[in-house]
Amino acid sequence: MLRTTAVRLAESVSKAPLTLQQAGASLLPPIPLYRALLRAHRRLSIDMRSLGDDYVKAEFRRHRTIDNPLHIIGFLSQWKLYLDDLPADPTQEFRGRKLDSAVLEKMSAEQVGQLYELMHATKNVWKPITELQHDADAAERMNNS
Prior knowledge:
Blueprint: H1 2-12, H2 20-26, H3 30-41, H4 46-62, H5 69-85, H6 101-106, H7 109-122, H8 129-144
């Protein structure tokens, strides 16, 4: 029973079905994965790096005490997929990717809430500087009125 569930979990994080051995081979242990993520963030813009580093640190801290093997595999495999999506070339811009609807449906209410908070935290990162300045000027005018 446990093996079947682990295989299903491994299949859900990639396009092609994986065997349990293939899923295990593609995972990095937690500390090397954590370090690789922080190193990969060095190639991002300052705003994106700061946001990414804080989020990675908080998530790894939150999951430090998890002892369910399926949660650990899911956590590590999703972070490995994110690491693989980050640009290897410092001149290449990182724009992220759309969230698969199947992944969204599997999320708990708490995870959806975290995703919502992350969406609002990152909203201003993607805006051009001129738009941010315009928003700040508009807010200042409203406060002075």
